[in-house]
Task: inverse folding
C-alpha cells in the first residue's frame, strides 16, 4: 500500500476489509440484503420506496446517517455493470456498523435503479467469469432506456423528454435531496481503472490513483472511452456530457445522435452536486498501461478497426432486418438491438473521420492499439450476443415464424467464431477479485466526500 494521508489511509483500511466475493447479486438478493439490514437497524436505516420499474419491481432507497451533507449513491444505471450492487450493499452495511462513517452526512443508497435490465443480466452473475460467458448473457438497454442517459435534454437541435419511470424516480430524489455529492456506480469490462468527476478537486486525482494502486490495479492509460473526454490527469477525466458529445459529433461534420438524453450527473449539477463515476474492469491485460510504441501509426489502427467493426455490424444489420418483422416488439432485447445496430453503424465513419484529423506519422502506443482492437472484439460479442438472444428467445417462446430459424442458425455460427477468437486472449487476461473492484469503488466514493469537504472548508 503506498504512503497516503490520514483520512485516505482510514478509507483504504475500511475498503481492504471487504471479504471475498464469488458472484454478483441479482435484483432479489440486493433487495433481500438491504431489507435485512433495515430490519436489523430500524433506528439507523430509513427505507423508502421511490418508484416502480416498467415491469413492476419496486425501487427502494435506504438512507443512513444524519446531515448536514447529503450523499446519493445509486447502482444499476447500466444494468450490465454489477460491481456497484456490492458497493451499495457494503457501504450500507458499514454505515450501520460504524458511527464515525455516518457522522455529518446522510447517505442515500439505491441498491438497483434498473431491476428490469438487471434481471436480463443475471445469467452471468454467478460465473464462470470469462468474457465469452459473460457477454453471451449480457444485456445493455437501448440508449433511451438507460437510466444514466435518459434525463431530459435540450440542446441545439436535440430534444429528449421520454423519461422512463426509473430515471424519473432518480430525478425526483436528486431534486429532493440536492445532494452534496453523488456517485453513479458504473463499471467497464477489460482494461485499467479510470474515473470521471464533474469538478476538479484539489488533490483528488492523486487520491484516485492511490486507491487503484493500493489494490494493485493498473490505470487505463490507453484510448479514452470516448474522444470527448477531457483529461484532468492520467485516467481521470472531466465527466462526459450529452452536450459535449453533441458538439464533438457536429465538429466532425456528422449528425449528432438525438434519441437519448442527458446524464444523471448533468441533471444534478443544477443543485451544485459534485458527481463521480469510478470505472472498474473485471479483467486486465498487460497492454492496458503499456506506453511503449506499437509498430503501427495510430490513424492506421483507427481505420483498420473501423473497417473490421463496420463489416461485422453490416452482417448483424442484415440478419436483424430479415428477422425484425417476426420478432416480439415488447422484448427489451429486440428494442435494444433495434436501437444499437444503427447507432453502432455510425461509429466506423466517426473513427475514419478521426483518423483523417490525426498526424499520419504518429505511432500508436501498445495500450492504444490494444484498446482499439479490443473495442471491436467486445462490441461484437456484446451486441451479437443480444441479437442472438433476441432470435433464439423468439424461438424459445414457441411461436417463431419459419424465417427466424435459419437466421438464428447463421447468427449462432458467426457468434461461435467471434467467441473462439476472443477465447484465444483468455490466458493473457487477469481476472480481478470482485472484492478488489468493490474496494476501489467504495474507497473512491468515500474519498469524494472528503475531497468536496476539504474544498468547502
Ligand atoms: Zn456504465
Result:
Amino acid at each position: 500500500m503506498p504512503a497516503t494521508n490520514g483520512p485516505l489511509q482510514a478509507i483504504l483500511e475500511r475498503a481492504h476489509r471487504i471479504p471475498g466475493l464469488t458472484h454478483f447479486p441479482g435484483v432479489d438478493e440486493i433487495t433481500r440484503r438491504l431489507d435485512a439490514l433495515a430490519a436489523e437497524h430500524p433506528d439507523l436505516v430509513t427505507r423508502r420506496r421511490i418508484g416502480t420499474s416498467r415491469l413492476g419491481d419496486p425501487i427502494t432507497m435506504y438512507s443512513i446517517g444524519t446531515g448536514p451533507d447529503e450523499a446519493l449513491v445509486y447502482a444499476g444505471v447500466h444494468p450490465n455493470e454489477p460491481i456497484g450492487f456490492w458497493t451499495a450493499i457494503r457501504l450500507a452495511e458499514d454505515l450501520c456498523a460504524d458511527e464515525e462513517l455516518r457522522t455529518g452526512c446522510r447517505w442515500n443508497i439505491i441498491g438497483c435503479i434498473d431491476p428490469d435490465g438487471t434481471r436480463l443480466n443475471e445469467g452471468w452473475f454467478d460465473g464462470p467469469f470469462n468474457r465469452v460467458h459473460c457477454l453471451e448473457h449480457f444485456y445493455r438497454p437501448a440508449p433511451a432506456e438507460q437510466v444514466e442517459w435518459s434525463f431530459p435534454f435540450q440542446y441545439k437541435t436535440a430534444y429528449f423528454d421520454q423519461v422512463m419511470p426509473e430515471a424519473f424516480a432518480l430525478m425526483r430524489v436528486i431534486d429532493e435531496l440536492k445532494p452534496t455529492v453523488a456517485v453513479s456506480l458504473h463499471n467497464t469490462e477489460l482494461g485499467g481503472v479510470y474515473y470521471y468527476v464533474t469538478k476538479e478537486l484539489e488533490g483528488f486525482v492523486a487520491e484516485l490513483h492511490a486507491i487503484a494502486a493500493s489494490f494493485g490495479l493498473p490505470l487505463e492509460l490507453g484510448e479514452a472511452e470516448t474522444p470527448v473526454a477531457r483529461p484532468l490527469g492520467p485516467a481521470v477525466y472531466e465527466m462526459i456530457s450529452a452536450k459535449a458529445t453533441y458538439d464533438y459529433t457536429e465538429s466532425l461534420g456528422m449528425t449528432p445522435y438525438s434519441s437519448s438524453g442527458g446524464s444523471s450527473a448533468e441533471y444534478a449539477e443544477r443543485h451544485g452536486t459534485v458527481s463521480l463515476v469510478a470505472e472498474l474492469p473485471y479483467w486486465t491485460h498487460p497492454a492496458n498501461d503499456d506506453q511503449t510504441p506499437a509498430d503501427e501509426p495510430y490513424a492506421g489502427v483507427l481505420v483498420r478497426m473501423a473497417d473490421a467493426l463496420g463489416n461485422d455490424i453490416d452482417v448483424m444489420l442484415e440478419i436483424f432486418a430479415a428477422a425484425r418483422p417476426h420478432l416480439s416488439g415488447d422484448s427489451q432485447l429486440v428494442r435494444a438491438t433495434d436501437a444499437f445496430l444503427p447507432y453502432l453503424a455510425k461509429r466506423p465513419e466517426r473513427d475514419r473521420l478521426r483518423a483523417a484529423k490525426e498526424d499520419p506519422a504518429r505511432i500508436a502506443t501498445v495500450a492504444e492499439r490494444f484498446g482499439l482492437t479490443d473495442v471491436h472484439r467486445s462490441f461484437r460479442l456484446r451486441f451479437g450476443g443480444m441479437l442472438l438472444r433476441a432470435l433464439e428467445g423468439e424461438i424459445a417462446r414457441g411461436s417463431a415464424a419459419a424465417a427466424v430459424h435459419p437466421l438464428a442458425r447463421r447468427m449462432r455460427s458467426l457468434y461461435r467464431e467471434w467467441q473462439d477468437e476472443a477465447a484465444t486472449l483468455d490466458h493473457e487476461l487477469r481476472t480481478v477479485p470482485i472484492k478488489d473492484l468493490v474496494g476501489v469503488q467504495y474507497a473512491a466514493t468515500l474519498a469524494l466526500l472528503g475531497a468536496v469537504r476539504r474544498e468547502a472548508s
User: Anything to note?
Assistant: The chain has two domains: 6-285+432-456, 288-428.
